[in-house]
Amino acid sequence: MYKPLHNPTVAILVCTFRRPGMLSDLLDSMAALERDGLQPSLYVIDNDPARSAAEVVAARQAGFPFPLTYLHEPQQNISLARNRGLDNANADYIAFIDDDEVAVSGWLKSLVSTAGNFQAQLVFGPVTPIYPPDMPHWLIEGGFYERATHPSGTPMPLLEARTGNVLIDSRILGTPALRFDPALGLSGGEDYVFFRHLYAAGAKGVFAEDAEVREEVPAARANARWLVKRSFRVGSVEATLSRRAGVASSARIVAKIAYVLARSLPALAISPFRSQAGRLWVRRRVAIGLGLMYGLVNGPYREYK
Fold it and tell me: Is the pLDDT of residue 230 over 90?
């Protein structure tokens, strides 16, 4: 039986890499959090060998309204950075938020109250994109950066689980405690594998519609090329994970490649007659298929190297 926690401790983990301005904005939003009935602590894990976040954190520590700790993971690898935070956090709940996000003041209270109200061990909140002023309108209208939202308490499917805005009940991490896979720390997919383990162990994941964070879309990602590249990476990671699972899973990926390309290549031929958004959706489906082929042969495409 799940038992809600009274006045819980919450360790907020932020992994950062060379984003001092965004990190400063995030710290502003953390300092403004509503904390009644909560005992938060904040850990910033700097994944830059040059420690670019150290000065930002040091400048805020003395006046911060709750404990603020700087940690350093010199090897560039998001899994290792997250694991560094998990190894140092000792709290009833663990919350992850990205360094390019800012939270509304009720963010943490909404996550924790939703966990108690719905007897959930995992709570995910909405991530609202903030677009640069010169963003092409067709990219915004195409919904390429939007993530699914749900009413509070809605069960979250595994395919929507991610670390950008999530609360985890520490009691479900097990012994030895579950950690992120470093082999996927430069390609992505490490969060999917992490949550797959938790769901398989019986964890209940739900959505908290009021636990909003806002995520800035950087100019470097506000283009079709980046979206196509991301789709290729997603396909490569999916194929890599299936290859790990054995011959039967690899065979299913071969079938999926045939299906995706059989649907997408004819659509690509007539894509000049589609809208810009329609053409991009087709290109992304083709990229997923090609990524699946790449991953089946070569392993994951390391987007973050």
Answer: yes
